[in-house]
Here is the input.
Amino acid sequence: MEIKEFTQIITIFEQSSLSEMEITSETFSIHLKKPTTNELKELPKIIKTEEKKDDKPKKSTKTITSPIVGTFYRTPSPDSPPYVEVGKPIRTGDVVCTIEAMKLMNQMEAEFDCEIVAVLADQGSLVEFGQPLFEVLPL
Here is the structure.
């Protein structure tokens, strides 16, 4: 990624209402955070950047998206562990999350064997139709 592209990302972030943002790709990772009211004396800064070097052949990931509009839940109940974790393999038919729509709890099941690479939605957040929920690596 060129320095010009980093500058554009930082400018867009500074002009947005976001307080924190993270972007990850196959070649880099960038995490930006704006200061809290207690840290206003400091300027917004890049918290962490790292160049990823990997000699392994790249496997293509897929995205599991929301089939409906609703509230995303990673756990079956507030005191339960998440259905799936990053790095853990899941099998076809395993429940990956629950989406609440119109007071109905809809359990989403994996359509193929895969490994969770990233969870892209926050617990209790509103998700839209087609919104990415998980990044997975097919097995």
About this structure: The first strand starts at residue 20 and ends at 24. The two ends are 30 Å apart (CA to CA).
